[in-house]
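User: Modeling request: complex.
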Amino acid sequence: MKKILWLSILFLLILGGTSVAQESIIETIQKQGVIRVGMSTFVPWAMKDKKGNLVGFEIDVARKLADDMGVKIEFVPTAWSGIIPALLTGKFDVIIGGMGITPKRNLKVNFTIPYDYSGMSMVAHKVRAKGFTSLDDFNKKDVSVAARMGTTAEQAARKYMPNATLKLFENEGQALQELNLGRVHAVVSSAPMPIFHALKYPDKLFVPLKENFTREPIGFAIRKGDHDALNYLNNWVLNMHAQGFLKEKKAYWFESRKWEDLVK
Amino acid sequence: MLNKKSLKFTIIDMAVIIFVITAIGLFFSRMSTTLDYKWEWGAIPSYFFFWDAVTGELKANILILGFVTTVKLSFWATLIGFLLGTLSGIMGAKGSFEQRFVSRIYVETIRNIPSLVLVIIFYYFVSSQFLDALYLDQWLRSSSQTVQQIIGLLFSSPDQINAFLSAIIALGIYEGAYVSEIVRGGIISIPDGQWEASLSIGLSRQKTFLLVILPQTLRKVAFPLAGQFISTIKDSAIVSVISIQELTFQGMELMAATFLTFEIWITITFLYFILTFSLSQSVAFFEKKYALK
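Assistant: Request completed. Predicted assembly structure:
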């Protein structure tokens, strides 16, 4: 229902045409001295710490970008299912939110070259999904799988487990709650969150698949037709790869768990 | 009062109490056995306030900030709803045919679409055409620190100002439709004799309305209006879909970050309850005190 609503908004937007300035966002950002970044909470990409400040991999990347442009940064936390319409209507300049580059999304927005790769992983209920070790085990009629609405996790679940019943939620917490209650067999989400969650409830949950079952490129999303911005951001990403900045941040947020004290 | 409430404790009262206690007990026992939920209340207080180690000050955290935003949101939405609703209500009750027509269209349109749809339409279409074109956020960013603080205190910070304004306008329009019906009903309920009497002592129609009808109406509609305003607070949760950082949105962000789903929902419910319950109790108190006898 909600999805239909967002889709119709998108449709109306395209139909009506939006009054987004022709000038490149690079110029407007410089002129206003501030870059507005759309994001949504995804552990550990972006989340609020104990003091109410935003922290996470994406947050570090976005702050560095603002730093390099010499401007201030404003984060616009947005519900994930409505983040593309919000970008198209100019609520912010760029999405830096771990958005997977998919052909379908690419029809609506422009993506930069990938600054990161993520993959889908799963966490399953020990009792309900007993002995499940492959995607085929989950791809059955009586199996239900939960994912966050509008994410690539949803698409991956549809593609790799078409026979399973899919339950969609507005955010990850609700999906995991459903799993903890044993109402679904597994939750599909971007690594490393499922692994972290399984570690947190070792007596109840486990990780059924040894490796991620997809590999997806992650890019910044901007409104279409802004070649200057695309060029700038692409080269910024290339630079950050070369400097090792992205690798270092990735190691901190995805491979270590040092940040956990910040959050809880 | 003819039928005074009986204070006798009957068997039915007993049954009700036992039923409620069993229901609560059952809920918690199921919570601990079937759901097997790990309660972690320890972290919750720090989401209200925390000690900033750097400055050594006690600072408000996201739940309090969200609560304050909800209060601000409800206040402005109520104000807009009141002005709009009173105008439309007067037009609907005593206006010319055109005025009644406009008022009717407004009320019926708004009352027959879900508030969620109204808020979304307003944010994505109306606000991006009008509010964004005003460049209010840019003006605010370039204005002085004092101006920013005052606006921040009354409305919101520059990064949220457009979204905040479109939220209060959308909520105000939504509440206004209900206020309009309350006001219209109030005016109509004043007996015709009041009109006839004041016209016959030589007051003009306008003066009759302003000096005789309106004061009586206001007294009649004051408490239904207060009820409507309390429901504005609850309705304000809907603007979390356009990412206004009010209580529900902040709670959902917090849940996404900490996975403390039940603890946070319960806390949020409690916060809304304190706000609306204390308001409705004070309204009930004044209603008793100033009741029309």
